[in-house]
């Protein structure tokens, strides 16, 4: 292949510069602190995949995919002796990582990086034809590249604006992220990376209405992860894709997905390459400390702070005295989680994890919002539905911000027997302000997998991930993820 054949179609264009960076980035060029944080983020993603592998909706997905797909070469997290083709394994493993709303999210350009990157990279490592071993350094380099590309695609579309307009933002940004990561892992030349991104972007999509109870909400990042992997693998074989896919005016990625926005300019192409190799978007990836959609965490923290400050007022036997609870949010958080649950419509686990009303009510009643709160026996308790009816989410324009997605939340509690109100606000929940520390992530990992996997296996996985940069063969980690796990909730 000549240099012309390997170069992007327009090296000076936005797509051209991005593809060149993806192809050229070396492990040695990534700062030590970025690599170190990446290992802890990977540990968090593995925790999410393991605890969700045998949830009821995960088992429904798994059994359906096992039925429709032949056996393959790629491992399935938490399913002993089950292997599928690269594409099928990717979509199923991603569905597990996204299976309990415990996974990471980017603070300015909402997407769940682990559910996009880990499944695609694990499948690429085990793909047919990949006869050489991939080291931990190979895997970390590719993971970091994906963490940088995905958010920049979102920033080019004004961050949370996609979410406000009803798109599942991560599902739109996701094909680019997983494609970039796999392209880096396989060391594709720039021309093939450009084709891969063009193939990935034409598969982008995802409707946020999936959050109102559909199991498909858990799978939409999986569609994106699969599509990005497919794009990289087929481009590797010489199949060509759209050139300059991001900036092309007619039918280009940014021009199409910025339709309907109220911003001027409608999109920001330079955000795709801004700060590449200097400003690391990985440091804006946040780790959830509650089992709920990220926009709900501020409500949970506000209620928890009120309970701590006024313990007598918020005793369970005093909750009937609450008249109403007004919660105020940014536009993106309000549109995403502020919908009103119909009183006569039972909640599913998916809908509950997307509901500000449910988050406030369950924190008031149970004083925690963890996995157990989404078991079938707890979801539609009469006392929960009564409290939910008192929660009134509102949009507060002063909370709208492009920094950290506008996570500012205000909760005001009104009482039946008094005109006095109690109010609490947070600029952002813990995990956002401040971000979860590496120690927080390890604590979360150990807490999540307790009772789900054996302690010896837990310790071995933890050690393998946190020394991933020393590992010579990533399949050693993959083998530790295969054995069966237990379901963590009462179904």
Automatic annotation (TrEMBL):
Membership in a protein family: Belongs to the PrpD family.
Protein name as catalogued: Cis-aconitate decarboxylase
GO MF annotations in UniProt: lyase activity
Domain MmgE/PrpD N-terminal: 17-265
InterPro entries in the cross-refs: MmgE/PrpD_sf, MmgE/PrpD_sf_1, MmgE_PrpD, MmgE_PrpD_C, MmgE_PrpD_N
MmgE/PrpD C-terminal domain sequence ranges: 290-466
Species the sequence originates in: Extremus antarcticus
Superkingdom assignment: Eukaryota
């Amino acid at each position: 292949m000549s240099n012309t054949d390997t170069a992007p179609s327009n090296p000076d264009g936005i797509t051209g510069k991005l593809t060149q960076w993806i192809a050229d980035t070396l492990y040695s060029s990534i700062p030590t602190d970025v690599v170190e944080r990446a290992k802890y983020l990977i540990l968090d993603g593995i925790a999410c995949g393991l605890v969700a592998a045998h949830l009821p909706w995960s088992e429904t997905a798994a059994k359906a995919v096992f039925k429709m797909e032949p056996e393959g070469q790629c491992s399935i997290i938490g399913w002993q002796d089950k292997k599928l083709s690269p594409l099928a394994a990717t979509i199923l493993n991603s569905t597990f990582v996204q299976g309990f709303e415990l996974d990471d999210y980017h603070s300015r350009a909402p997407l769940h990086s682990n559910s996009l990157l880990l499944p695609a990279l694990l499948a690429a490592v085990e793909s047919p034809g990949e006869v050489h071993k991939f080291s931990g350094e190979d895997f970390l380099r590719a993971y970091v590249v994906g963490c940088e590309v995905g958010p920049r695609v979102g920033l080019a579309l004004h961050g949370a604006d996609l979410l406000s307009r009803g798109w599942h933002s991560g599902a739109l940004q996701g094909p680019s992220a997983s494609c970039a990561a796999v392209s880096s892992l396989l060391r594709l030349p720039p021309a093939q990376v450009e084709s891969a991104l063009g193939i990935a972007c034409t598969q982008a999509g995802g409707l946020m209405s999936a959050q109102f109870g559909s199991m498909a909400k858990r799978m939409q990042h999986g569609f994106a992860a699969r599509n990005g992997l497919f794009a990289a693998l087929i481009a590797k074989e010489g199949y060509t894709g759209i050139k300059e896919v991001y900036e092309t005016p007619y039918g280009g990625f940014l021009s199409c997905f910025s339709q309907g926005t109220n911003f001027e300019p409608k999109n920001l192409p330079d955000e795709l390459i801004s700060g590449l190799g200097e400003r690391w978007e990985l440091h804006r990836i946040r780790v959830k400390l509650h089992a709920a959609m990220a926009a709900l965490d501020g409500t949970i923290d506000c209620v928890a702070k009120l309970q701590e400050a006024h313990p007598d007022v918020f005793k369970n036997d005093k909750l009937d005295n609450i008249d109403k609870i007004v919660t105020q949010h940014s536009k993106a958080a309000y549109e995403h989680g502020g919908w009103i649950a119909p009183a006569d419509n039972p909640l599913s686990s998916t809908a509950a994890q997307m509901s500000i009303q449910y988050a406030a009510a369950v924190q008031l009643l149970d004083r925690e919002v963890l996995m157990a709160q989404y078991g079938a026996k707890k979801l539609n308790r009469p006392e929960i539905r009564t409290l939910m009816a008192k929660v009134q989410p509102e949009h507060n324009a002063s909370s709208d911000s492009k920094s950290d997605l506008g996570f500012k939340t205000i909760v005001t509690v009104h009482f039946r027997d008094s005109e006095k109100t109690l109010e609490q606000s947070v600029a952002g929940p813990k995990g956002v302000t401040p971000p979860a520390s590496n120690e927080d992530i390890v604590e979360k990992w150990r807490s999540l997998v307790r009772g789900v996997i054996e302690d010896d296996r837990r310790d071995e996985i933890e050690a393998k991930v946190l020394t991933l940069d020393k590992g010579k063969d990533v399949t050693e980690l993959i083998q530790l993820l295969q054995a069966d796990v237990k379901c963590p909730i009462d179904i």
